[in-house]
User: What shape does this take?
Amino acid sequence: MRWQTIRWNGKMVRYRIEPQIVRLANYGPYHLGHTLFPSPHRRSIELAELLKNKYAKRYKRPLAVKTESFATEIWGHAHLDIWYRTCLLFPLPRTVRDHCKKQLVHTRIVDIGVKAVDTNRWVWDVGSRLGGWFVFR
Assistant: This one.
């Protein structure tokens, strides 16, 4: 499926639904930080539910990812992206700056998939059990 854009909570959200995976854009006008604030916990859960419903409608079966884990991954990517962008505002050694830039590449697209296709699904599952979005605060 191609990328689609929807207006949600007054902001634009860009997503793509594929078998066993949902992808979210996290850059430019689609940055999730703009979408989730001022209440990232509630809004990340709402967005997770919305996208899981769209997945179920498209494939006639639910996405086998817990809503809390889905929401934690959304919030985690948005938070980490904001963190690395903030770090780049300060004078840093070149190795640290290069590391931050490299990590920004990984936060541009949020890949939320089932365990069979998402190698780091366990990170978000554990994070959601340890307090979800609060871990990334």
